[in-house]
Amino acid sequence: MDAVALEKLSYAYGTVTAVEDVTLRVAAGEVVAVLGPNGAGKSTTLLMLLGLLPPRTGSVRLFGDAPQRAVAAGRVGAMPQVGGLLPRSTIGDLLRFLHDVYPHPMPVDEALDLADLTGLAGRTVEKLSGGQAQRLRFAMAVVGRPDLLVLDEPTAALDVAARRAFWAAMRGYVSHGRTVLFSTHYLEEADDNADRIVVLDRGRVIADGTAAEVKRRVDVRTVSVRLEEQDYSVLPGVVAVAERHGRAVLTTTDADATVLALAEAGLLRDVEVTGADLEEAFLALTHREA
Ligand SMILES: Nc1ncnc2c1ncn2[C@@H]1O[C@H](COP(=O)(O)OP(=O)(O)OP(=O)(O)O)[C@@H](O)[C@H]1O
């Protein structure tokens, strides 16, 4: 049975469509990254998945059940994007409290160990670094020993070392065969930590596959030349054209073909070819889907 089954989910905040027709199945034991730029609809999708936001259309099933039931049964642990930690409490207090709430929890020491917080049980939440606070949220999500872990941008605002420590903790939990769904803006993070990547853009799924498959599809380049009066968008491979500082900046899925065509058209002046960033890659991907 699938751990997660989202069927044609849609949601709008007033007139702003946040999620549109999202269908997604996650098998038990899979680690799936939901990748997308700001405002893509990642958080809204995860909130519906957790039963915290009622979908406008579509349905959510977690382990074949309504999300609220799966959550009540202790099968789901979540790390929301933001969330207060009860002031003046210690790491140990918070974890012991949650431990007593869940039906099949792990020992508090095990949660501390998984989140790399051993020795810090007595520390109050006000004294935690950003990375420690985030690892505490992770410990709070896993202490109930959930079968499904849902992490919404768990490493936002963490530095490189804290990120690395966080993902090491996550992988420690996954090695027990659990299912994880996490959202991120970062392709490398998705690539390093997920078996599968689902790309959301403007509320829709625009790609779904292994990291290698998705990377191949977003492998675009930027070709820039001195700007002339030309319609660059008709050149082979070109999916987007921008003008910057007197240069035509072309996002292309086939840099060789684009450069060749520029040469044939006598437009190859002061050429520069670089790898595109993820934003440009998204642009290319959505353009191609359209
Ligand atoms: N409470 C809200 N009220 C109105 N609009 C909202 C609200 N929350 C989100 N939106 C809008 O819905 C869309 C999807 O937002 P969502 O937060 O789900 O995206 P996201 O991919 O999680 O973005 P981010 O990476 O910035 O967290 C965006 O256009 C956003 O502006």
How would you summarize what this structure contains?
The chain is an alpha/beta fold and 290 residues long.
Key terms:
290 residues, alpha/beta, Rossmann fold, 6-stranded mixed beta sheet, 4-stranded antiparallel beta sheet, 13 strands, binds adenosine-5'-triphosphate
Structural notes for this entry:
By secondary structure, this protein is of the alpha/beta class. It has 2 domains: 2-216, P-loop containing nucleotide triphosphate hydrolases (Rossmann fold), CATH 3.40.50; 219-289, Alpha-Beta Plaits (2-Layer Sandwich), CATH 3.30.70. The protein has 10 helices and 13 strands. The strands form 3 sheets. Strands 5-6-7-3-8-9 form a 6-stranded mixed sheet, sandwiched between helices. α5 packs parallel to α6. The two termini are 33 Å apart. 41% of the residues are buried. The model has no long low-confidence stretch (mean pLDDT 90). The chain binds adenosine-5'-triphosphate. Adenosine-5'-triphosphate (ATP) binds at residues 13, 16, 18, 36, 38-44, 185.
